[in-house]
Write a sequence for this structure.
């Protein structure tokens, strides 16, 4: 496997830390493995454990997550100590710290990452999410704009910029950035959901309903789309069962 493809896979696996997934890692060291391979092992064990915990109904999910986060962070920190400039490990640390709610640590890991690798779209998106959570929309825009200069064809960056513009109330830019994300291959259901939010904010109820219906057809388990669709129809005077 070539180096660039390995890096891409590690970045994608690191992004899964932002979701609801947990399990303690053994943290054992495999002789002859470099940081990419060792991080890959940790990620695979993490995902395997997540599916195991989901099937163990007798366990407290929150308790499992807390135990897992500590174990995972311990192993990732050890890997970081041995390879302090390995950006996939820094991103995994930042993502997991963000998930745990320790945003100061997440920000510190991102600072280190950007020192070594200024061009990192996923890290830019994470920093944007952190800025939005702090109510700092200008900071969100700055980091996304900078990352788009480095990687203008990254659909996720355009989606994130659309979301930032939407929160600022700039619906024209939100539409334009979302259209760019769509052309770059962003998932159709997610584009439709975001388009529904934009059109709903603009007062275009028919367009918003159409967008949410597209999400409901493509991804029936998207409860947020169903909820907004039902709410808009109820506001229009319909009785919803």
């Amino acid at each position: 496997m070539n180096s660039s493809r390995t890096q891409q896979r590690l970045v994608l696996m690191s992004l899964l830390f932002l979701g609801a997934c947990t399990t303690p890692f053994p943290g054992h060291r495999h002789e002859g493995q470099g940081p990419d391979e060792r991080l890959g092992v940790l990620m695979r064990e993490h995902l395997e454990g997540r599916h195991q915990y989901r099937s163990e109904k007798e366990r407290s999910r929150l308790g499992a997550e807390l135990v897992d986060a500590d174990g995972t962070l311990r192993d990732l920190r050890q890997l970081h100590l041995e390879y302090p400039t390995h950006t996939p490990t820094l991103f995994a640390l930042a993502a997991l710290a963000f998930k745990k709610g320790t945003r100061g640590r997440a920000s510190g890991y991102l600072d280190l990452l950007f020192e070594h690798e200024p061009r990192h779209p996923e890290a830019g998106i994470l920093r944007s999410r952190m800025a939005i959570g702090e109510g700092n929309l200008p900071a969100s825009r700055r980091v996304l704009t900078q990352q788009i200069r480095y990687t203008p064809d990254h659909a996720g960056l355009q989606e994130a910029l659309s979301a930032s513009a939407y929160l600022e109330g700039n619906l024209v830019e939100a539409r334009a950035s979302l259209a760019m994300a769509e052309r770059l291959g962003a998932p159709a259901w997610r584009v439709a959901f975001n388009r529904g939010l934009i059109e709903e904010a603009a007062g275009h109820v028919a367009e918003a309903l159409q967008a949410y219906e597209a999400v409901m057809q493509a991804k029936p388990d998207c409860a947020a789309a169903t909820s907004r669709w039902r709410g808009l129809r109820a506001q229009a005077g319909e009785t919803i069962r």
